[in-house]
Amino acid sequence: MERDSGIPLENLRCDGGMVENDLLMQFQADILNRSVLRPHVKETSALGACFAAGLAVGFFRGIDELQTLWAVDHCWQPRMEGKRREEMYRLWKKAVTRSFDWAEEESSSNEARTSNC
């Protein structure tokens, strides 16, 4: 993301169901070598829709007010050593490469059998 945007990533704000998995969030922090933040409101898609509606009808004064409503529930700090991080990333890329062309294309006869469902 940093390379594509040209903006340095100070931390990663996560939301959704997986933020309940502390091991996953710690792993994200370790692999990214960045703080990972979980907000108090974990389903921020719904919150964003509420914020947009509130802005549209004048319930909120502006985006500055909305920013004050976002709060951190938990923060994970990276703990993995750089050498270990680089080795795990190298092995992950190797695993992804090995998975290329793993699945075979389904035959047209299989597609015909399932298309009448």
Summarize the structure.
The protein is mainly alpha-helical.
Set down the secondary structure blueprint.
Layout lengths: L1 H4 L5 E3 L8 H11 L2 E5 L4 H13 L6 H7 L2 E5 L5 H17 L9 H7 L3
Parallel strand pairs: 1-2
Antiparallel strand pairs: 2-3
Question: Can you walk me through this structure?
Answer:
There is one protein chain. The protein contains 6 helices and 3 strands; from the N terminus they run αβαβααβαα. It has a 3-stranded mixed sheet with strand order 1-2-3. It has helices at 2-5, 22-32, 44-56, 63-69, 82-98, 108-114, and strands at residues 11-13, 35-39, 72-76. The radius of gyration is 21 Å and the shape is extended. It is mainly α. The model has no long low-confidence stretch (mean pLDDT 90).
Tell me, rounded to a whole number, the average pLDDT. Answer: 90
Number of helices, where a helix is a run of at least 4 consecutive DSSP H or I residues: 6
SS content category: mainly alpha
- Beta strands, count: 3
Helical amount:
40-55%
Low-confidence stretches: none
Proportion of strand residues: 5-15%
What order do the SSEs take from the amino end to the carboxyl end, as H and E?
A: HEHEHHEHH
Lateral arrangement of strands in the main beta sheet: 1-2-3
Shape: extended
Radius of gyration from the alpha-carbon trace, in angstroms: 21 Å
* End-to-end separation: 41 Å
Largest beta-sheet details: 3 strands, mixed
